[in-house]
Amino acid sequence: MNISRLEPCIRHPLSEKELRETVDKAKDWALMHGISMKSKKNFNKDEVHILPFALLPTSFPKKSFQTAKNVQTLLNELIHKVAYDKEFITTSLKSTIKADPFTAELFRIYEAVYQEGFSQNVSLGLLRSDYLLHGDSGGKIKQVEVNTIASSFAGIARITSQYHKYILAELGYAEKAKNIPENNSLTGFCNGLVEAWKIYNNKEAIILFIVEDVTYNICDQRFHEFEIRRLNPDIKIIRRSLTSLVSEHTIKLGSNKELIVENMIVAVVYYRSGYQLEAYPTVQEWDTRLLIERSRAIKCPSIQYHLAGTKKVQQSLAQPSVLKKFLKDKESISRVQEVFAGLYTLDFNDDGEKAVTMAINEPSKFVLKPQREGGGNNIYNDDIKTCLNSMKNKKERTAWILMDRIYPPLQSNYLIRAAQEPISEGNVSLSDVVAELGIYGVIVGDSKQIILNEEVGHILRTKSSTENEGGIVAGVGALDSPYLIS
To answer: How confident is residue 425, by pLDDT bands cut at 50, 70 and 90?
Structure first.
């Protein structure tokens, strides 16, 4: 396969002395400005180490960057309308909920609150749409997925853009900093949370962050808290895990369906956890999620938004003519279709059988995806053939979807990691990398109207070209910024 290359933002390689001094300076800057997390290997609540990051900003075509930015409000609108269309969600997930227990539990909660009647019809979406460059010239851009829950790194993405402007100046390329676009991702997300808090219309009410029992990605989450405090000092925020809410018996519904935690009324629930099965070790965590959904609190995401972000729903949206149901004008439909990659059902029908055959015959052309968020779940290359052959006649295959594999252009960069982490020995070398662009969107509305709909910022995540997955917290991917080129 002919994979193209992009020119790096500055000359390579740096001299050994310049590289060593620049890396030391970069690591200190990252630590002092919050490009960091708690160690998974040697956890200590009072210690952080740097998150993986790219020493230099990574080149990215300006036209493709603008295409992704310009389509985000349409994608926000699309996800919002899907979330409020019970027939579409139900039809899309009909086979998946029979094969995937996690999605089935989410759907059980959705059906329960739908039948009772939603106590709160307003939803807040803090979304991230992810893209890879595609094609021999690397000029096209194709969507990898849409995240509707715990869309991460909006806080640190802004800081990373500032870092790359700094490091270019330090290396004598200050004039090139203008090619790193402004990034207001954190303020954009926090404005959405503040707007939802205002809609709830109770100045005494708080915002509840649902977090992991142990949070490693602490800086990104705390940046949101601090920015909300800056935007509106009246808003109090508390952090609780689903398990702590269960064990401490501190959550209940009030007489008017208010969500009450520790005698405080909750206006907004912001999930930074809850997208993986590990967040629900017992049935009581699921019961707590249901109780929250039954409440008047505005959820980010609401259960219907969570389901709208599943891979199966995204695959359904890629079918011909489906977009006409949600986007009314031809230009909008065309712009969304332009960024969609090929997505295929694995249901037991003609289309599903055709997709299975395609993938087994040419596995390098596809990615096999389950209904999971958080990275590290996809299957590639000959493992696709093995996996599909093993579940070819089992219902579990309907819990997966197939996507065209995207081969983005290569370029060279230095990826910096904390020296003590097992994936790195502390050495920094120039390597071939590929980059994934994420565009952040904010949307607030109910079944009848959209109150707020904005594109608010971006993130670039870069990894070695030899890696399939790119999780930053897992230590494989690295935080980055786009350096826009013609």
So the answer is: very low
